[in-house]
Structure formats: structure tokens, C-alpha cells
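Quick start: what a row looks like.
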Amino acid sequence: MIMAQEQSIFKAKEEFDQMVAAVRQAAAQGQRIDRVERDLWQRMLALSRLMLQGFVDLQGPGDLGATLEFEGRTLNRLQDRHDRRYVSVFGELMISRVVYGSRETQKHEVVPLDGRLCLPETDFSYLLQEWDQSFCVQGSYARSNQSIDRILNLGQSIHSLEDMNRFMAQDVKTFQDAQPAPTPEEEGPLLVLTADGKGVPMRRNPDPDASATGGRRQKGEKANKKRMACVGAVYSIEPFKRTVEDVVNDLRRESRRKDRPVPQNKRMRGKLTREIEGVEVKGKEQIFSWFEEQIAFRNPDGNKPMVCVMDGERALWKMLDRYEWDVVRVLDIYHVLEYLWDGAYCFCPESSDSAQQFVTERLIRILEGDVGRVIGGLKQMATKHHLRGHRKRKLFVTINYLHRNRDSMHYDDYLAKGYPIGSGVVEGACRHFVKDRMELTGMRWRTDGAQAMLDLRSVFLNDDWETFQQHRIEANSRKLYPNRELIESQWNTAA
């Protein structure tokens, strides 16, 4: 019996001896090192698969006797062994197990070997799932599949990777809810909130079983529509007092960036507008609800000054108005700069020195807290230069933007107190969260798949990937095998 259980290990030893012989032969023949390296990798996969199979075989089939006492009932050992497919990073194994239940045709209630090994719910190993999805959250399913296949020689289907992504994302909320609050020593004295929105291209047909292309579009119907995702970030930071000149140099990339404080305990989330319990909930509503949790979590006494930095999207500021937070509202200076450039091109040639001077002069005035003078000056210039048509409309878009947001443009005060005035953290998050993954060429999403990807990307971009994987393994093991200790005790008795 022991000899039979060790057959895979004996084969692994033979494989290792063949590897040694192959290396000696390659050295004698003067082979290129890249060829030897490639050959060794393939042999290592085969060797490791045999060793893993040997580990499983050494456990035995999980035979704990003819009957098993379980939750006050007596279960029978079913007559036939049951094989289970297990796809590891080394290749596919077949695991033969003893099963306990009432009868063969009914549910298999206890499989001792599964509990001892803490096998996952699906055929795919936890490590393979982790590696698969670490590729998938960064690139397309097709490209990820190619990469894994090239490295591990595993031919998985794209459909299985999509299902794996949605299945794994189910554990994100419990993981995030279990994260402890940062200690005061780990936090900066300022708490910063920032949010931005980005559209995700969706499939036209909401039927999850429908084809990706759907039928012929009706007249005026677009090939796809977008559903809004809101990306939010919360972090603490040290105040960073600067002068107007410092900011201008910063925007010209002439600044002392190395002196800038680093955000502490930055957390990002992405939420899609979707139905929750039959009611459509906006992505921004979910993000601001999360902000409220974070404020209670990280600033329970309200002692930290709080700053909210966002662009000029009205819906986001209206959402902020719903909450009675004592928060300083800051309009993102980078968006102000974009509108100033639009205004400059109403009078100056693009990429000209005069346009640069136009923008710099008005940026300095705005940073000095004199946005009213900038607005008045732009109106006077429109009259003086007799602007008409497109240029006039474009200029007044800039003027209206500045006027509408002037209550969030007290930059002289913000700079003096060391508050952040740019939302670069969430701007980058929107690019990484949404555009860099959700808007790849030809990409179209269904709601559940898009939200699953956003959830997993938030974990990945928060640098919580490995911690999350261990959390889900432990949580799933407890859920799948709640009586593992009982099985283990009877296993040792049977042994």
C-alpha cells in the first residue's frame, strides 16, 4: 500500500535524474543557455506535478471506516471511490477519494480528504486562481490566457477566467470590511477625500446569455453605451505648505517633487451604477457612502481637518452637499489649468509663447485668491476683441466654469495651510481602474462582470493582493469545511 502511494514520488526521482543527465549532456555539447533554461522549466513543471501528486497520494483516500458520525447522524462510506479534477500551476491531477453520505445517488455530505487538503470549491487551485487573476486585472482575458499558457502550458478557456474573476470578487467586500483602522502613528494629520467619474463601455444586450454582438442595430442606436463608474480615494497626509511660485514651477515640472509628502494608507474603490436589490444605485452614491464609513473609521472624533478635492462635475459636488461633513472643498487645479488653456486659445495660437504667458498670468492670480479679477478680465477681453461664434462660446465655457466653482477656489488659503489642491491620486486611479483595463480595444462589459473587475482591481491597486488571497483561502476553507477539526481528529484515530 505504501509503495503504491509513493509511485508518483518514485517517478519524480526518475524525472530528477533525467534532468541531471540532461544538464550534463547540454554542458558537454556546449548548448545555448536559453535552450537549457527552457528545457529545465518544462522538466520542472513535470517534476513538480509528480511531486504534488505524490503528496496527495501519501494522504490516502480519506477512509475513516465503514461509518462516520457527523452532526448527530451516522453516514455510510459509499462503495465507489470518487475522482476529483484538480488543476494546479504544474498541471492537472486526479484525486481519488472516499465519500460519506446516505446513498450514492444523494448528496455527498462529507469527503474527508477534501477537508484535510482544504481543496477549493472549483477545480482550479487557489494559487492558479491568484496567478490567473493577477494577469486578468491588468490586461484582457485573452492576453492573460495567452501569458499563462505560455508560462505554465495550461490551456484554460477565456470563459473560465471570466467566471473565476466574478467568483473571486465575491470575497472582496468581506475582506475590505475586515481591514483594521490605521493606527494614529500610521496616519497623517490631514484626511483627504477625492472622487472622479468615468464611463465603462457596456454591451447593448443585458441578457447574460446573449451573444456579444447582438442583433442589427436600429436607426440612431449606438454600438454600445456607457455606464458611469465612480472612483474614490481616501488617504491621510502631512500638510505641504507652498508658495504660488512653487505651484507654478510644479505645474511646469520644475518643482521639488522629492520633498512632497507621501499619502498614507491610501484606499481606493471603484463602483459602477447598477441595480442593488432591485433598485438602481448610482456609483457616486456608493462611493460617498463609503467616504462616510471611512470618516467614521479614520476620523471618529472629527479632530483631523478634512479636504475634498474634485473636478468641476456638478453631480459630485451636489453629492457632497448631502452630507454634513466639516470638509474644505477644493477644486482640482489641474482642471482649472485645462480651462485656462481653452481660454488662451481663443486669443492666442496653439503652443505659442503668448498662450503660455496668458495661462501663467491668470494661474498666478487664481492661486493668489483673485479668481474674480480673472473672470472680469476675460469678459473684458471678449468685448475688446469682438469675439464671435465658436471662440466666444468656448471662452464663456471657461468663464462659467470659474464662476460656478469660485467658492472652491480659495487657493491662497489652501496653500498657506498646506492642503492638497490637485486630485492626481484619483485621476491616476480613474486611468488605472477604468481606462487602462475597462476600455481596451473592443472591450464591452456586462454589469456584474464590470463590477467584479473593479472590485478586484481596487484590491490589486491598493497593494492588498497577497493579503486578500490569504483571507479568501482561509474564509472559503472555513465555509466549505466547518467540521475540519472533527475530520482531522478521526483521521488521526483511523491512522
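That is the whole record. The two ends are 13 Å apart (CA to CA). Confidence is low (pLDDT under 50) at residues 208-217.
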